[in-house]
Specification:
- This protein is an all-alpha fold.
- It contains four helices and no strands.
- The longest helix is centred in the C-terminal third of the chain and has 22 residues.
């Protein structure tokens, strides 16, 4: 199982600004990957990342649905 790493939000925002948004896509990639690690489903997250990164309304759906997954999984761990 892969390890989920913590990121500081201020540092991530600053890196996104300094790199003209390139780090923002890496940040999104890591978010999708971490949610799949929590779900024990690390096989197919490339297409989900593409939709999350480039389809505006899908990202709203993703934040809502995956937020529930993270809340339930992290609640079970505590």
């Amino acid at each position: 199982m892969s390890k989920i790493s913590r990121r500081e939000i201020v540092k991530s925002i600053l890196l996104s600004l300094v790199t003209c948004g390139i780090y923002f896509f890496y940040w999104k990639y890591q978010l999708v990957k971490n949610v799949h690690i929590l779900q024990n489903d690390t096989d197919r997250f490339g297409s989900e990342f593409a939709c999350f990164a480039f389809v505006p309304f899908y990202s709203l759906y993703w934040w809502h649905s995956r937020g529930e997954v993270v809340r339930v999984k992290l609640g079970a761990l505590q």
